[in-house]
Request: fold
Amino acid sequence: MFDMINIFEVFLPQLLRYPNPTDPLNGEAAAMLMRDPKTYDVKVKEYVTRYASKDAADDAGDDSDEDDGMSSVGDFESGDEEPAGQMEV
Reply:
């Protein structure tokens, strides 16, 4: 069994350094890597700058203060609704 340190220090860095385009999660990225590796590298660097930089993290942290879209447990505790089915005993 893998522990978390092994996952973060070994598995993820190897996965990011050596992507496997023959079994992709993102087919478009895999096709770009196989057809045009230089364009793929440019695109990856652009995405890292946009989404994985300190500035991007700081910007994302500023947006996390808005809880308007979050629900609370109290939203589900109205006594007006009947249960969906009978509980087996």
About this structure: Residues 37-51 form the longest helix (15 residues). Residues 69 and 82 are 25 Å apart (CA to CA). The chain has a mean pLDDT of 78. Helices lie at 4-17, 27-35, 37-51, 54-63.
